[in-house]
């Protein structure tokens, strides 16, 4: 009887232990799923902010004028009038916002990685040329407008400013969101201010290819629009800011889009938007919110690795000649191609892959 009782106790103990192991294994499984869902949600909220936040907030504020809460909208627009030029002076960077946990989930979804190849001197200013644009410049945002990839630790003393369309800063609420991450308008006044009146250690990140480059963004294609883009080089020469080539491997892999042929009605519409509004509407898709097998706005979870190259020392020339601009533009293109060739095989590209410079 005693032996039977002992066996019963041992059996019960084993059952309890087995049950506990099952619980912990299920809990771990659920935790993994929860983290994956949080990653998807963190990316989707940014995509929706990028696409509709500005317009949605504008509509809501205009509607508020017609309600009993009209004073709230009136106060905001009054303050907006006084604050209108703040984006041109570097905005209001918030380390708290840049360190939000949501950006770490954003980073891990793809994942996104920032690779440093050379040190940057805090006594100099820089213009980073970011390539390629992709559909939304996800790598540019994560690496330089948040601390998810620890840009401040990798480049201590350097303040990155991601430059984007000035029109975004005319949108209520969206402008505050952008400025908190260190995003600024990509126009001459802003860049002149940051490179001449904001001390040293500033790094202006310009997505050089812009809207034109986004129109050719597609998985498997490594192409940049650069050959006739020389304005950023002229700015660098006027301020003596060093040029830094930067390439994001995988940026073109996260969305698929419909590519309209030159001469088609679709490409005509895109170019008209690009000319008069500043951006080109793309017909693109990623995966669905709940399944990777459906279409939606969530980008595909493909690795994005942003490699920051060696800075090109640029002299300060108040009135650079076209010959000066062409010289440093050629040096920049050669440095970008070299950067691509030196790192392409590390990130899954064949040795025969060639960067197309248009």
From TrEMBL:
One biological process term in Gene Ontology: glycerol metabolic process
Keyword rRNA-binding: no
One term under GO cellular component: lipid droplet
MF (Gene Ontology): diacylglycerol O-acyltransferase activity; retinol O-fatty-acyltransferase activity
Transmembrane segments: 40-64
E.C. no: 2.3.1.-
Domain of life (superkingdom): Eukaryota
InterPro entries: DAGAT
Major subcellular site: cytoplasm
Compartmental location: Cytoplasm, Perinuclear region; Endoplasmic reticulum membrane; Lipid droplet
Pathways involved: Glycerolipid metabolism; triacylglycerol biosynthesis; Lipid metabolism
Keywords: Acyltransferase, Cytoplasm, Endoplasmic reticulum, Glycerol metabolism, Lipid biosynthesis, Lipid droplet, Lipid metabolism, Membrane, Transferase, Transmembrane, Transmembrane helix
Keyword field contains Lipid biosynthesis: yes
Membrane topology term: Multi-pass membrane protein
Catalytic activity: 1,2-di-(9Z-octadecenoyl)-sn-glycerol + hexadecanoyl-CoA = 1,2-di-(9Z)-octadecenoyl-3-hexadecanoyl-sn-glycerol + CoA; an acyl-CoA + a 1,2-diacyl-sn-glycerol = a triacyl-sn-glycerol + CoA; all-trans-retinol + an acyl-CoA = an all-trans-retinyl ester + CoA; all-trans-retinol + hexadecanoyl-CoA = all-trans-retinyl hexadecanoate + CoA
Stated family: Belongs to the diacylglycerol acyltransferase family.
Name under which the protein is recorded: Acyltransferase
Organism: Rattus norvegicus (Rat)
């Amino acid at each position: 009887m005693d032996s039977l009782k002992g066996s019963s106790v041992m059996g019960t103990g084993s059952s309890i232990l087995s049950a506990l192991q099952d619980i912990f294994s299920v809990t771990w499984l659920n935790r993994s799923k929860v983290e994956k869902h949080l990653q998807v949600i963190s990316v989707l909220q940014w995509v929706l902010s990028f696409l509709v936040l500005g317009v949605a907030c504008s509509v809501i504020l205009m509607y508020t004028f017609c309600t009993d809460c009209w004073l709230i909208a009136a106060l905001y627009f009054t303050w907006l009038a006084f604050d209108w030029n703040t984006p041109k002076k570097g905005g209001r960077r918030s380390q708290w916002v840049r360190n939000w946990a949501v950006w770490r989930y954003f980073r891990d979804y793809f994942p996104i990685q920032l690779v440093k190849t050379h040190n940057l001197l805090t006594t100099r200013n820089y213009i980073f040329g970011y390539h390629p644009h992709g559909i939304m410049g996800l790598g540019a945002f994560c690496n330089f407008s948040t601390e998810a990839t620890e840009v401040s630790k990798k480049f201590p003393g350097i303040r990155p400013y991601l430059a984007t369309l000035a029109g975004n800063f005319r949108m209520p609420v969206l402008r505050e969101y952008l400025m908190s991450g260190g995003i600024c308008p990509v126009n001459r006044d802003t860049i002149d201010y940051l490179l001449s009146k904001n001390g040293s250690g500033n790094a202006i990140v310009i997505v050089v290819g812009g809207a034109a480059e986004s129109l050719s963004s597609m998985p498997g294609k490594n192409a940049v629009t650069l050959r006739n883009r020389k304005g950023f080089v002229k700015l660098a020469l006027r301020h003596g800011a060093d040029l830094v080539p930067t390439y994001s491997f995988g940026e073109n892999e996260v969305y698929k889009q419909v590519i309209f042929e030159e001469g088609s009605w679709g490409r005509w519409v895109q170019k008209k938007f690009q000319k008069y509004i500043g951006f080109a509407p793309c017909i693109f898709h990623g995966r669905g919110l709940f399944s990777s097998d459906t279409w939606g706005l969530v980008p595909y979870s493909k690795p994005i690795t942003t490699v920051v190259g060696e800075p090109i020392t640029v002299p300060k020339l108040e009135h650079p000649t076209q010959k000066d601009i062409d010289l440093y533009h050629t040096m920049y293109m050669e440095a970008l191609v070299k950067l691509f060739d030196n790192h392409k095989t590390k990130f899954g590209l064949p040795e025969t892959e060639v960067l197309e410079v248009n």
